[in-house]
Fold:
Amino acid sequence: MDIIEISRKILEEGPICDNCLGRQFAKLSTGLTNRERGQAVKLTLALEGDRLYKSENDDSLLQDLAPCSAFARKVLRLEEEDEQCWVCLDLFKKLDFWAEEAARALEGLEYSTFLVGTKVSGLLGENEEILWAETGTTHAEQLKTEVNREVGKRIAEKVGKNVAFENPDIMITIDLAKEKLSLQVRSVYIYGRYRKIVRGIPQTRWPCRKCHGKGCESCNFTGKQYPESVDELIKDPVIEAFEAVDTAFHGSGREDIDALMLGTGRPFVVEAKAPKRRDFDLAQLMQQINENAAGKVEVRDFKFVPKGVIETLKSSKADKAYKLKVTFKEPVSEEKLKSCLDALSGAEIAQQTPQRVMHRRADLVRDRRVHRMELNELSEAGYADITVHCAGGLYVKELVSGDEGRTEPSLSGLLGIPSKVEELDVLDVDVEI
Structure:
């Protein structure tokens, strides 16, 4: 079916604007807007109708005279009477309105790139499908594609920013059914390392176990199980710096609440959500956090990163180093202790999910490797200072205690004496970003 025949069928369906007519042939040429395509098609049809009208003495064309001259008049009448387009309901007369709405919504936000998306109403979607079915056109693009492009061009002119199809700073969504515009601001992601230098602070926010964050007498109506966390000690300066609505904390593993995080610190990413600002002096931000969390948490090595770094942190099986203070139910000799530590060095450990974390992890047996264990000191008071170097994911408290046989082999099992970790410090988390 040729373009003229398809165009005739399109106009027979009812009044149609230049954009919607031209969009049915959007894939046939480049360098033109759909509006320009539509104008060209209408002009071609009007000229063809006039040619046939003036050739009425040509018998071969007489059969085409009536429909073509009527068609020409229809095209011209559309231009004169400016009837509402039945396909888009004159949506393309409102493009400037949506661009102005977007420009107003973007005021006060710091960004470099944006992208427009459109939610088409059910009626507009149905009109488009009817047109495709009736005319058989195979060269069209979707209505929302053209709206996104045309509104995007107008916004770019107004705000002086660029459109980005991948990872835009701001996503602008036009909901035609609700006649509403909304913004989705891409988060800012900052990588760093933290040291936790006091015990009793969890890594992330814990809602109260009794009220689940609603507030009750047990949590003094704070909704929190613990007064503060590493996450919360970092949060406020980040919110202030980027004028964000909130933050999310993404750590490379976690340490127990009663453990210290020493050495070079644990890698993490803090996500500033819906930020009004996207740039800030990270050295200044680190200083503000360290002053805010003085004596509790220290941060270092801040840098901006893409969102994908979070997945790298979560999926990496980083080797770790720990310092343990271990006590024994009975006296143990240094020679026997060293022998057991040597036996565990290089060993594969079959570790069933520890009882203390079964509420949040599947009850499985996981194989983890101990690289080496070293005795630093066996004190006269009966406790041992031990360093453990191991693969990520190994629960070292259970490596010592055996967890009632759920971890094999264990220090308690090899010694034949119940052993317990009294204090645990994380010395190193080997992750490079």
